[in-house]
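Worked Example 4.2. Consider the chain below.
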Amino acid sequence: MSLKKFIAQENRVAELWGKGNPAWTVFPTKTEELTAAHKKELANRLLSALSPENLCCDGELRGAKLRAKSIMLNTAKADLEALGQKVEWDMADFA
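Applying the procedure from the previous section yields the following structure tokens:
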């Protein structure tokens, strides 16, 4: 399940950069323990990671590595959607 891999990746970043900062979310490692707020935050992070600039690291990532990253993120997106969370931009967030 790529969602678990994505969660582990996000938790590693939070451990490195978010110590003592409540704005950095650390997610439960078991998907059944994810709250609605966790799922929404993960959806937003997946959408950000799937943006062209982030997906290809501003053009630095190409070929097989880019395909592998895209597959992992899109599979994580599908996993999250299977848990009932829409993974799409909510225009109300931009109002």
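The radius of gyration is 14 Å. The mean pLDDT is 90. Compare this with Example 4.1 before moving on.
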